[in-house]
Amino acid sequence: MALLEVNNLDVRFALRQGEVHALRDICFSLERGERLGIVGESGAGKSVAAFSLLNLIAKPGFIAGGTVTFDGQVLNRMSERGLRKVRGNRVSMIFQDPMMTLNPVLSIGEQMVECLKAHRRISSKEARRIALDKLQQVQIPSPETRLDQYPHELSGGMRQRIIIAIALLLDPDIIIADEPTTALDVTIQAEIMALLLDLCEQHNVGLILITHDLGVVSQVTQRMLVMYAGRVIEQGPTREIINDPQHPYTQGLINALPQMATPGEKLNQIRGSMPSLSNLPSGCAFHPRCDFINRADGKPRPPAPSRCLNLSNPATAVWRVIWWLKCSKIAV
Q: Which of 2, 227, 273, 329 has its CA 20 to 30 A from that of 221?
């Protein structure tokens, strides 16, 4: 049994005009120490999926169906008290903006000690020792000094290292990183991702990396999910998907990488934008933007090709061809 299993996860938002499906039939698993990437454009449902794993969806959002099972426990059916024992303790999350995560009126040391004492019965002196050790692990210079500093006194890259150190404080089994390098420059991004990868390998920690950057995913993760309009449209080993994408949206994301463009010419891009979840097109949700489609076919929306399936299995090849013919008209 996998450490984390997500089966047919359905998340909705109750709005005045009716319920909006943010996620539909999301299925994936994560083994201990495995690294999984979730990619897609803004609005694809990546962050909603991450928040759903720890049941952090705020109203009017709610989990309408499916299960999130962690180490035999169904998290979306646990009480708030039970979830507090899992959040931060066994499953940690790194959010996009460190300044929104760190408390500006508390020193770094106070925040780290508070986190430790919330989950363990230890003295303040022992908690501070553990906090210092974690700062050293994430290669913070002069860690003793940093413990007594406040978030605004640190650079963006150093704040992100602090967040990673806090995520590692309680030796979690899984770290969920929601676009952890969005606000950083390219050089610092590479350093942070290399650090995160190294720490996960050292401590055998599972990683769920959420990003829109396929280049990062190809270097860091072992498996990946591609999301579009609240659905998983493709999943499997990262190398196989990068080398042989089965969905035109995945191919479009790969073609949009800067290194795929001809020098001196415009970068490749997917035409159009992500559709509104309250007004999804008929058939395949991607067909209005797809270069392989002549027109909308008007047929009911088919299930996602990767729904609860391992796309690396050759036995699914015929099924994928049938799905493709159902949801699109191939230009000839």
A: 273
DSSP one-letter string for 197-210 = HHHHHHHT-EEEEE
CATH number of the domain that residue 208 is part of: 3.40.50.300
CA distances (Å), origin 127, targets 97, 124, 137, 147: 25, 5, 15, 12
Q: In this structure, what token pair is assigned to residue 25?
A: 């039939």
How many angstroms separate the CA atoms of 213 and 221, rounded?
A: 12
For residue 240, the tally of other CB atoms under 10 A from its CB is: 14
Domain count, the chain: 1
Residue 135 lies in a domain: no
| Residues contacting 62, CB < 8 A, separation 6+ | 11, 12, 13, 14
Domain extent at residue 210: 4-90+170-327
Residue 132 lies in a domain: no
Give one DSSP letter per residue of 30-48, joined into a string.
E-TT-EEEEE--TTSSHHH
Q: What are the tens digits of pLDDT across the range 32-88?
A: 999 999 999 988 999 999 999 999 998 899 999 999 999 999 999 999 999 999 998
Question: In this predicted model, what pLDDT tens digit does every residue of 103-133 receive, in sequence order?
Answer: 999 999 999 999 999 999 999 999 999 999 9
CA dist 325 and 322 (Å) reads 5
Q: How far apart are CA 283 and CA 255, in angstroms?
A: 24
Rounded to 10 degrees, the C-alpha dihedral 71/45/252/179 comes to -70
Q: In this structure, what token pair is assigned to residue 79?
A: 């009480």
Closest CA to 308 of 22, 27, 120, 29: 27
Residue 57 within a domain? yes
What dihedral do alpha carbons 139, 141, 146, 150 form, nearest 10°?
Answer: -90
